[in-house]
Structures are given as structure tokens and as C-alpha cells.
């Protein structure tokens, strides 16, 4: 049984990105820049935002953090994004979700210039993924999962993959990316009938439901590859995935832990997308 080490893989990717940025700095005197916008003081958002900024520093990328009050108006946020859209030092703009209720998340996401949508959340980028375009911003979590599977030599072509979860930022784009890799994909969700039976058919199971321990050993085929996207805080304060790790790891051929699996990959792919934006659009 292999533990798929997302932490180490993300560090490898960070090293690769850092080398490229060092070369760019030497060659052009410029480096990619990422703007991270946080609204309010949601504790989880703060952890993610700080981690993104720290990773920028680790790879030698320019970063700017904007912490706005929770009662900031939608117009003010739009104005900031429009300013960042015009800013030549900034190649990627990330607005940490969720936003307070008085702000329309879709409107904010769509305000980000398509050239700087390094989260890959805009309808245009989702559409490009669906069309099988390689040269677009793939949403970071699905992109990180595909990268992890490839780096662990998991055969995707012809594999039966079951994705549990249908969100716009994980389940749907991941299903599209897996189809593009020639996997046969089933997407399960809260209304799915006989979900356990469907999961049991899968060579690759990807759980993105947000329920601690949702996938249990009896639902998984012997020798399956299991990817856990869940980050659920238990009553003991520790982090747990959507997969019941102890049981499932006894049957799986390979499995990602939580923490240290998919999570670190998401940030690594954000760096990759920001570097891509710099290389593609910077004149
Ligand atoms: N909230 C939870 N995950 C993410 C993410 O990957 N990007 C942004 N912008 N917000 C999030």
C-alpha cells in the first residue's frame, strides 16, 4: 500500500517553480506576482491566505495581501479587483471564498480578468476545461489531484473513476479533467442512488463531500486508488478527511492522507497557474 505524499510532491513542484522564477528574474529582472484578497476574519480563510502568501515567498514570487473589513461594500471590492486587473506587477488575483452574504461571489469571480483567474473559477475557464483545452487555468484542487495521480504513475486512461461531490470548484472540473485523461467517470452526490455500489466499482475513488469519514472500507474495491479532498475538523480539534483512513487504507493500493495529501497540492498548483499567467501574458 502506498501513501500518496502530497506534501513532498508539492515541495518538489515548488522547487521546480522556484528554479523557473530564478531564471526569469535573471533573464528579465521580473517575477510573477499574486494578489490575495481576504474579506473579513474567517479563521479558516486566514490560515489559507497566509499559507498562500508564504508559499509565494518560498518560490520567489511577488505577493500582495489585501485584508478588507467584513462590511466592505461590493462596489469597493469590485474597484480593488479592477485596479489589480490593470496592475502589471500582478499576474494572478485570488479572492478567498466564502465571501460575506452581502457580496455576490459570482459577480466578484467574474470581475477578475480571465488572464489573471489563477483559481480557475470563472465560467470561461471552466468551459475551457470542459472543451479539453490544455492551455487554460485549471482549478487548483482538481489540477493538483491529476498531477498527484500522474506523478504516482496511476493509469488514468480507461480507468473507472468515481468522483463523490459535484461542486463547481472540485467535483465538476475534476470530472472534466479525468474525462480529458480518458478515464470513465461517474459523478456521485447527495441524490445518488446506491452510491456505495457505484463507489465499489471504481479503480479510482475521489471523495470531495465534506463529511468526515464518509467513505468506509466496505465501499471500496480491493486495490483501488483513493484520493481524499475532505478537510473536516473533528470534535477533538484535529483534521479529518472524507475517507475513513484506517479501514480504507487496508484495502486500497494507494491513498492520500489528511492532512498532507491534496491540500498542499492545491497551493502548489496556484503557484503553477500564476507562473503560467506571467509566461503567457507578460510582455
Ligand atoms: N475557498 C476554499 N478553497 C478555496 C480556493 O481554492 N480558492 C479560493 N479563492 N477560495 C477558496
UniProtKB/TrEMBL annotation:
Question: Where's the Tetrahydrofolate dehydrogenase/cyclohydrolase NAD(P)-binding domain?
Answer: 139-280
Name the UniProt key words of this record, in alphabetical order.
Amino-acid biosynthesis, Histidine biosynthesis, Hydrolase, Methionine biosynthesis, Multifunctional enzyme, NADP, One-carbon metabolism, Oxidoreductase, Purine biosynthesis
Pfam families in the record: THF_DHG_CYH, THF_DHG_CYH_C
Q: Which GO terms describe its molecular function?
A: methenyltetrahydrofolate cyclohydrolase activity; methylenetetrahydrofolate dehydrogenase (NADP+) activity
Catalytic activity reads:
(6R)-5,10-methenyltetrahydrofolate + H2O = (6R)-10-formyltetrahydrofolate + H(+); (6R)-5,10-methylene-5,6,7,8-tetrahydrofolate + NADP(+) = (6R)-5,10-methenyltetrahydrofolate + NADPH
Assembly, per entry: Homodimer.
The molecule here is called: Bifunctional protein FolD
State the species of origin: Propionigenium maris DSM 9537
Organism ancestry: Bacteria, Fusobacteriati, Fusobacteriota, Fusobacteriia, Fusobacteriales
Amino acid at each position: 500500500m502506498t501513501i500518496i505524499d502530497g506534501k513532498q510532491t508539492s515541495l518538489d513542484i515548488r522547487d521546480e517553480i522556484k528554479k523557473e522564477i530564478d531564471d526569469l528574474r535573471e533573464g528579465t529582472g521580473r517575477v510573477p506576482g499574486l494578489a490575495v484578497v481576504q474579506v473579513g476574519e474567517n479563521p479558516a480563510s486566514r490560515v489559507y491566505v497566509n499559507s498562500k502568501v508564504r508559499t509565494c515567498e518560498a518560490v520567489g514570487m511577488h505577493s500582495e495581501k489585501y485584508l478588507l473589513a467584513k462590511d466592505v461594500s461590493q462596489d469597493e471590492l469590485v474597484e480593488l479587483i479592477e485596479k489589480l486587473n490593470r496592475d502589471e506587477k500582478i499576474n494572478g488575483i485570488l479572492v478567498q471564498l466564502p465571501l460575506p452574504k452581502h457580496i455576490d461571489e459570482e459577480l466578484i469571480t467574474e470581475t477578475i480578468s480571465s488572464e489573471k483567474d489563477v483559481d480557475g473559477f470563472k465560467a470561461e475557464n471552466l468551459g475551457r476545461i470542459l472543451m479539453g483545452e490544455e492551455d487554460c487555468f485549471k482549478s487548483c484542487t482538481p489540477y493538483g489531484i491529476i498531477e498527484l495521480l500522474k506523478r504516482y504513475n496511476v493509469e488514468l486512461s480507461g480507468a473507472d473513476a468515481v468522483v463523490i461531490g459535484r461542486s463547481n470548484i472540485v467535483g465538476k472540473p475534476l470530472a472534466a479533467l479525468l474525462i480529458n485523461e480518458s478515464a470513465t467517470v461517474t459523478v456521485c452526490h447527495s441524490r445518488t442512488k446506491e452510491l456505495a455500489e457505484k463507489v465499489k466499482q471504481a479503480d479510482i475513488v475521489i471523495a470531495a463531500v465534506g463529511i468526515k469519514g464518509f467513505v468506509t472500507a466496505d465501499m471500496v474495491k480491493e486495490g483501488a486508488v483513493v484520493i481524499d479532498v475532505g478537510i473536516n475538523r473533528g470534535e477533538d480539534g484535529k483534521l479529518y478527511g472524507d475517507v475513513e483512513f484506517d479501514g480504507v487504507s487496508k484495502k486500497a493500493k494507494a491513498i492520500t492522507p489528511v492532512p498532507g495529501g491534496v491540500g498542499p497540492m492545491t497551493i502548489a498548483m496556484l503557484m503553477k497557474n500564476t507562473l503560467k499567467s506571467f509566461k503567457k501574458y507578460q510582455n
